[in-house]
Amino acid sequence: DVYIQFREKITEENLKPNFNIQDEHGQSIFSLTLWMNMLTIAKQLLLNRHAQLEIKDCEQTPLLAQAISKQNVQAALFLLEQGVDVNEKTHGLSPIQLAVKHHLPSVVEALCRNGANMNVVDENRNSVLWNALDSGQEDIASILVKFDCDSTHACDINSPRQPGVNGEAPDICKTLESPLHLAAQWGLERVVSTLIEYHADINKKDAEANTPLHVAIINQHTTIINLLLNAPSLDLTIRNKQNQTPFACAMVAKNNEAANLILKREPRAAEQLDNKGRNFLHVAVQNGDIESVLFLLTVQVNVNNRVQDASQFTPLHLCVQIGSEIILRNLILAGANINDVTANRRSALHIAAENNRGVICSILLENHIHANLTDANQNTALHLAVQHGNLDVVRCLLAESDIDVLTLNSKGMNCLHVLAAHPQGNAQAIFEQILKHHPTFPLDIQDGQGNTALILAYKNGHGQLCRALVSAGANLSICNNDSLSIFTMPTAMKYYFYYYLSDIITREPPWGESETCLECGMKFTITNRRHHCRHCGRVLCKRCSVNELPIMKFNLQKPVRVCQLCNDVLTLGVMAAR
Fold first, then answer.
1. Which one of 63, 226, 516, 569 is CB 3.0 to 4.6 Å from 577, fit for a cystine?
2. In CATH, what is the architecture of 176-272?
3. Of 461, 438, 440, 442, which is closest to residue 452 (Cα–Cα)?
4. Surface-to-core class of residue 364, CB atoms within 10 Å of its CB (0-12 exposed, 13-18 middle, 19+ buried)
């Protein structure tokens, strides 16, 4: 006070005290009054213009920055009242950044009130608000928010996780998860709601191409799923790297609740196709996933939609293919068209027959499938069953349906021709089933090439089936369109042929018909009359049937005409005839 009064009274300028003179540390009389809390004197110096607010110390630090660094709250507030520059930086930091750094909430509030820039960022691009939160100063953060700092300043609401300042956790950042992904993963419902409110990208993909909805479904967070589904910009067609839409993800995760919620928003979600042209019902049926099938049937998906590929299978066809009885019954109850056919016109019964699904065949027949439907090659289910040697299916078709055993396919073949042309190990048993249900089955019908079942079986080397056919009375003498019979056909089965002639023929066979001799090929005329071998039934000329002998096994006690071959077999035996 004395020096101030002295300065006011003295008239000589060179004798007036200089209150701005600085010591070796750059401190003036005015700054010392601040640090010693002599604020009344400091105010007098300013009122009388004896001190300068802009004075800096030897490190060029302004008074406000010095006060904050010294954590001298009173001095800092005093300087702010005097109108110092609230944004003047010191060593790259503004007063508000220093106040946050030194935990001075009252100074921060005063700075905000005096118009300090609250959105300034440091060298790491961190805002003042972030630094306050990062250091646990929620009181300062509240002050900044109260004064309307930009809470999104320099902030990307969709930014994926970033490495730390020193490069920490680089692997975590490779997931490319946005804040919304993380909130959906951790079940942070309020955070998800807020992020959506502030227009976070709801369709953003992470490294696995999962959207936040995929993540919420995988982690079974139903409330978050609801929040995301209510967002108007949500895209339900996005697929992740497993080619799964959110609905597909829900089905795979067995999250039926999520799947139901998706269907309420997008009723056609269940009809989406994968890269093989299958919808979700197709996939569930193929996987034998009864739980998913029942769920999809509950939400009333179309049970007759076809796979969009060359096969054109319906869910019913796929079910028959895998052989699931319970899924089949549920599909039928849900309204599956039991007589639908595939692209090659095969019905479910054809598929069951081909895949040896005997029980499935019974279920289909029980539900009135048309047994006589033919495919693109005019094959019935019975044709396919005998072709593949599926005895159980053959037995089922013959016993439980009205299937026509004489239906001819595009090659003019009935089921017996097909059996002989594709001989399986159980061909004889299948033949016995055919005869059991159709005792008068015409064994000698010829196919489009003129072959009988016996010729086809003989040609394909199926000895047991040949034996069964001959025993049942098949005609040995019939020739095909190439004029070949079992007598003239080149084959490795000649031994079996002689064996048939010797032992298998137990009753007189039917006589064959031909315009030429089946031994020498000479045409029949008025002078060259027809004769028959009474043992094998072949039609022969007189010259080729000169032998006569009784055939005791036929109870023919008088000598009758036989061909040379039968004569040798009957008189000399099989080995001699060879």
1. 569
2. Alpha Horseshoe (1.25)
3. 442
4. buried
